[in-house]
Design goal:
Elements lengths: L4 E6 L5 H4 L3 H10 L3 E7 L1 H6 L8 E5 L6 H5 L4 E4 L5 H4 L4 H9 L3 E3 L3 H6 L3 E3 L3 H13 L1 H40 L2 H5 L1
Parallel strand pairs: 1-2, 1-4, 2-3, 4-5, 5-6
Length: about 190
Amino acid sequence: AHEGIVLGWAGTVTHRIDVQEMRSGVLRALAQRPQARLVIIGDPGVYEVFKELPASQRLYRPGVPFEHYPQLLAEFDILLAPLENNRFNHAKSDLKLLEAGVRGIPWVASPLPAYRDWGAGGLLAATPEEWERHLLRLIDDGDLRRRLGAEGRAQAEMREIENLVGLWQAVIEEAIATSETTPVSAQSG
């Protein structure tokens, strides 16, 4: 539990250029909503990108071992997932949105393929103006945050079900293939 609305970003030094996609929109949104703050996990350089924010509106947390990451992620009310529009990022997975979904956290993300394909739980922003507009909307509308968080959670659960179905299907197909190639006398013994 915490006061205000926490916008959260987590990543490494390799994402500093990605953060530029949202920087001015985040700064403008937070200037208009002093009850909101930004939490940066991982890269202190990204924290410095937002040094214009008052100390009351920004917090840095160092990276933690993966088993502790879900607890840090739980501090977020809105996950920020910016990615620069380049070939490398077009090949990225939807892991950030999956993590947000598991925690029921709504997100604002860049409209790259994996994020567009995820399709539930947040809003896509291609420009700083869209980042600002979407963040203000999510900061102001608790019902929207809860609804998007629930949609993201349902998407994450469906993804896990699909993964399990795929695993079971592979096991069944392997068992069938094995039984078809094993002589009948070996099957009964």
